[in-house]
Amino acid sequence: AEMGRTLVELFYDVVSPYSWLGFEVLCRYQHIWNIDLRLRPAFLGGIMQATGNKPPALLPKRGEYLLKDMKRMAKYYQVPIKISADDLQRMLSSSTLGAMRFITAVDMTQPQYMEPLSREFWMRFWSQREDISQQENILSVAKKAGLSSELTQKLLEMVSTPAVKNRLKETTEEALKYGAFGMPAVVAHFNGEPHLFFGSDRLELLSSVIGE
């Protein structure tokens, strides 16, 4: 982190709509608060498996609540999440591993595209309800985020390399080391200590802890 700025890491997976909310709020505040925001693409499936966590929607009552909650949150934060009952199933049956590896490859080589690229993946999955595991969708996401087709091609070739696979695995393990059990997991490094905040509704607490 730059002198005197608080490093804030956001561990996220584009399958998680709450991660999108947390992402947008932190992106809006990164220039208002004295923070260095570091986007950390990780794999939610790996975190759930390692911690024995279950998707909240598996509990029917919680699933019902989640739908209402998500609609309210989307309206409040002005993030265009469109959610309905069948999305809970879609979320459980979709694999974002390819997308998260693609974002990881971008992080390793062209980090300046991280914000628009991640946002565009969420837009596709949560606003336009598209299957982002399909290569043609990854291509159009990359194009919309401003990546050239040559660069996108290079990144697609990187996706299946051990370097990218290991990096995503390591980032996921790092989130677990901080105590993550779901996403978004936000880690603020303040006074020489990591402070973990889970979810998109603890960002006021985060600001209070880091003195913003």
Q: Could you describe the 3D structure shown?
A:
This protein has 212 residues and is of the alpha+beta class. The protein has one domain (6-210): Glutaredoxin (3-Layer(aba) Sandwich). 56% of the residues lie in helices and 12% in strands. It has helices spanning 17-29, 44-51, 60-77, 85-93, 97-109, 114-127, 135-144, 149-159, 162-177, 203-209; strands at residues 6-12, 35-41, 185-190, 193-198. A hairpin with a 2-residue loop joins strand 3 and strand 4 (193-198). Helix 2 (44-51) packs across helix 9 (162-177) and helix 5 (97-109) crosses helix 8.
Task: List key phrases describing it.
212 residues; 10 helices; four-stranded mixed β-sheet; glutathione peroxidase activity; Glutaredoxin; alpha+beta; globular
